[in-house]
Write a structure and sequence with these properties.
This protein is mostly beta strands. It contains 1 helix and 11 strands, in the order βββββββββαββ.
């Protein structure tokens, strides 16, 4: 069993920055892909960013490319999302997602093959 615990959310003004963390426990996952999704009130959950736990690949949604950076610390089993130049439309609950056996970005972004989810952390960007 794997547990994913997010932290780092909060209230920030437009143009500001936040860094989210996702701490993973329970097992090792050298071939996994871990990433972030977000869900705004009344909207579907959408893909934000992901990385291969080996560290050789990263993926971003067009809406955050150039503003967000995903990274991980293997020794701490923790993933991060550095969010800069935040906009009000970035307001959402941000959730950590782990796919132990990555089937491809097409499936991952559509939430297929995700084995574990965190409970989320709220990010609110004021205008």
């Amino acid at each position: 069993q794997v547990q994913l615990v997010e932290s780092g959310g909060g209230l920030v003004q437009a143009g500001g920055s936040l860094r989210l963390s996702c701490a993973a426990s329970g097992r090792t996952f050298s071939s996994a892909v871990m990433g972030w999704f977000r869900q705004a009130p009344g909207k579907e959950r959408e893909f934000v960013a992901a990385l291969s736990w080996s560290g050789d690949r990263t993926y971003y949604a067009d809406s955050v490319e150039g503003r967000f950076t995903i990274s991980r610390d293997i020794t701490e089993n923790t993933m991060y999302l550095q969010m800069n130049s935040l906009k009000p439309e970035d307001t959402a609950v941000y959730l950590c997602a782990l796919a132990l056996n990555f089937r491809g970005l097409y499936y991952y972004t559509r939430r297929f093959g995700i084995d574990y989810w965190g409970k989320g952390t709220l990010v609110t960007v004021s205008s």
